[in-house]
Specification:
about 290 residues, alpha/beta, five-stranded parallel sheet, elongated
Length: about 290
């Protein structure tokens, strides 16, 4: 019996030791990455100075043409993340502040994402390799149902989210295999597709009266003397339930409503995402309204 217990103890110690070693190796690889995505690019960067930083979901990523701001002499990067929610946008801004970024203006796409405080698992997990190396990331996840397992059990986060930060992603990161996430200063242009979904129904969508992560972003900007510009971005002319944007304006009067700036279907790749041509029309209007004064 004693030998059996010692054997079990040995297996347990070996398993923990292997998990600790693998956790350290995987994390070390991610700590060297800068060209796979926007999160690791910020985490592993030196302090930056920006005139304009863009945050939000794909409706930020696909709608704000960074180069057009640059052409006006405004150093800009689009940190919008496809599939992301305000949970991730807030954490991205916290990470920038932790990395001592100096930012003059934040443009936040705040419209459909105001209806939820949920995290986007596909985006959120990409912060997890750094949870032991960033106080901001650790604190942001503190209320997560799986926080204790993710934080205290070595290698658990890499196993649980293997498809996103497991062996394949670690290998590509180690090989410095670049993605297109950082191309075009973070802006991702879309083309017109014949089979694009040009119908959308948002009748049942309602903005939360006090979205926690929207308020976090607004307060971080105030605390750090960053000019905060929150905008609603366009949707195509076939949307049912466009009074959602009126609800947003009522709940958050400071958010600028640009949902009807571009409406013709020819400027949309899908009902919620403009083509490059539409994005350029929209970006030109934003620059004119906020950056051509004085």
């Amino acid at each position: 019996m004693k030998k059996f217990l010692l054997y079990i103890l040995g297996i347990f110690i070996l398993t923990i030791s292997v998990a600790v070693i693998l956790d350290g190796l995987y994390t070390c690889v991610f700590m060297q990455s800068r060209n796979r995505g926007k999160i690791e690019n910020v985490f592993n960067s030196k302090p930056q100075k920006y005139d304009v930083v863009i945050l939000g979901s794909s409706r930020a990523n696909n709608h704000f043409v960074s180069q057009m701001f640059e052409d006006k002499g405004l150093k800009t990067f689009n940190y919008g993340m496809s599939g992301g929610h305000l949970f991730e946008a807030s954490l991205m801004l916290k990470l920038m502040i932790e990395r001592k970024y100096e930012i003059k203006n934040i443009i936040l796409e705040a419209d459909l994402n105001l209806s939820s405080e949920k995290e986007s698992e596909g985006v959120t997990v990409k912060f997890l390799p750094y949870i032991h190396n960033s106080e901001m990331i650790k604190e942001h996840f503190k209320n997560d149902a799986y926080f204790n397992e993710l934080y205290y059990i070595p290698f658990y986060r890499y196993l649980k989210y293997d498809s996103k930060i497991g062996f394949r992603e670690t290998f590509f990161t180690l090989m410095h295999k670049k993605t297109n996430a950082l191309d075009n200063l973070g802006y991702y242009p879309l083309e017109k597709h014949k089979n694009g979904n040009m119908k959308n129904n948002i009748v049942n969508l309602n903005p939360l009266p006090h979205n926690k992560y929207y308020e976090e972003i607004k307060n971080i900007c105030k605390k750090n003397n960053i000019n905060f510009i929150a905008v609603m971005t366009p949707m195509c002319e076939n949307v049912v339930g466009m009074n959602y944007f009126d609800k947003v304006k009522k709940a958050y009067p400071e958010i600028h409503n640009y949902e009807n700036t571009v409406i013709e279907n020819k400027y949309f790749s899908s009902c919620g995402h403009m083509t490059d041509e539409g994005a350029r029309l929209f970006t030109a209007r934003i620059i004119k309204d906020f950056f051509n004064k004085g």
